[in-house]
Write a structure and sequence with these properties.
Structural class of chain A: alpha+beta
Strand order of the largest sheet of chain A: 2-1-3-4
Strand content of chain A: 15-25%
Shape of chain B: globular
Order of helices and strands of chain A: EHEHEEHH
Largest sheet of chain A: 4 strands, mixed
Largest interface: A-B, 32 and 42 residues
Number of helices of chain A: 4
Oligomer: heterodimer
Order of helices and strands of chain B: HHEHEHEHHHEEEHH
Shape of chain A: globular
Number of domains of chain A: 1
Distance between the termini of chain B: 61 Å
Chain lengths: 110, 245
């Protein structure tokens, strides 16, 4: 299994907030050790490795994870789903709730 | 009629959808209450009061719940009490986990959503308590309508398997009896039935949520523009503009 994380750099050179949040969680939960490769999608450079990979895979948001197993690629755009399905780690109630919200945009009626 | 005992699957739900293809909201509410004994209604303190009226007429002591996030407008709290005192319903109020709220506010303060987006706070104050509440039921009803948001509601069905809160062991059915009604139809019903409504509506609030995250909208503004209005830019921030043109 090979795991690639793509994070984004904004046009002004700063890190995107969501990417920073996910990176913080990965570090805090000691999960960076599972990431084999980190690519940067730099909005200032359309040919940056992360931008090229996003274009190739048709991904329109960052951060995202690309998990390659036996030549098959699966993309995860939701951190908690990645943690549960790929790392097979448990998440707490707060993380589960956020995962539900991330995956169900119609819950904005609440 | 006894509760629907077999676990509803997509085929059952598809059949129900056909059965309810031309049904009025009142008929859908009656159908849901007939099919499920353990069913509850989500009441946000807004115009979904129409659902409470429909259900209470059919089934006195029907289960209704509201999520008290701790950040609602005073008018909404008063309105929830008005509804409790007006209808013969079993109204439950759910609260967020104090430890989770405390951790969030200790770390990020009381208004972190303006910087970090609303989802972290909503997850703690709304989704987690909702998840706990719904564990007690086999079905629920919401006031979701297709016209509420062009982005997220267009595909709202009158009945659906709730993929957010179902588990393989326990499917949860979600009824959206107002799905096909417009805002105008809901308000025509509220006026025709002389149903109490949240006074915030008279102040220009069309969508009512937590006080810091809801504001009145101007005429011809879409109702969702009154929610999390500061986030449009940050949401776009997550997009990757990979096209080269």
């Amino acid at each position: 299994m090979h795991i690639t994380l793509v994070k984004k750099i904004l046009k002004d050179g700063s890190a995107c907030k969501k990417c920073a949040d996910v990176l913080n969680r990965l570090n805090k939960n000691d999960q960076m050790k599972f990431i084999d490769e980190t690519l940067t999608a730099d909005e200032r450079d359309l040919n940056s490795p992360g931008m090229l990979l996003a274009k190739e895979l048709g991904i329109e948001q960052a951060p995202f994870f690309v998990v390659t197993t036996n030549g098959t690629q699966k993309v995860y755009t939701v951190y908690f789903q990645f943690v549960k399905e790929v790392l097979q780690q448990k998440t707490d109630a707060k993380e589960d709730a956020q995962d539900i919200l991330d995956q169900n945009s119609d819950l904005d009626f609440l | 009629m006894p509760e629907h005992h077999a676990k509803p699957n997509e085929n059952t739900i598809s059949q129900w959808r056909q059965d309810l293809a031309d049904a009025s909201p009142q008929t859908i509410v009656a159908f849901a209450l007939e099919k499920f004994k353990h069913i509850t209604i989500s009441f946000s303190g807004a115009e979904d009061v129409a659902l409470v009226q429909m259900a209470a007429k059919i089934k006195p002591n029907v289960s209704v719940f509201s999520l008290d996030t701790g950040r609602l407008h005073p008018e909404t709290y008063q309105f929830i009490e008005t509804i409790r005192n007006t209808y013969p319903i079993d109204l439950k109020i759910s609260f967020p986990d104090p430890a989770a709220v405390s951790e969030l506010t200790q770390q990020k303060g009381l208004f972190s959503f303006y910087q970090d987006g609303h989802k972290e706070c909503c997850a703690i104050r709304k989704v987690a308590p909702l998840r706990i509440m719904l564990k007690h039921y086999n079905a629920w009803m919401t006031g979701q309508r297709q016209d509420q948001s062009p982005d997220t509601r267009q595909n709202v069905e009158v009945v659906q398997l709730d993929k957010a809160f179902s588990s393989p062991q326990k499917p949860l059915i979600k009824f959206n009896p107002l799905a096909r009604w417009s805002s105008q139809q809901v308000w025509d019903y509220i006026r025709a039935e002389d149903i109490p409504y949240n006074p915030l509506h008279q102040q220009g609030f069309t969508s009512i949520g937590c006080a810091p995250c809801t504001k009145p909208v101007l005429p011809n503004q879409h109702e969702r523009e009154g929610r999390w209005w500061w986030e449009e830019a940050t949401q776009k921030e997550c997009g990757l503009h990979v096209r080269t043109e």
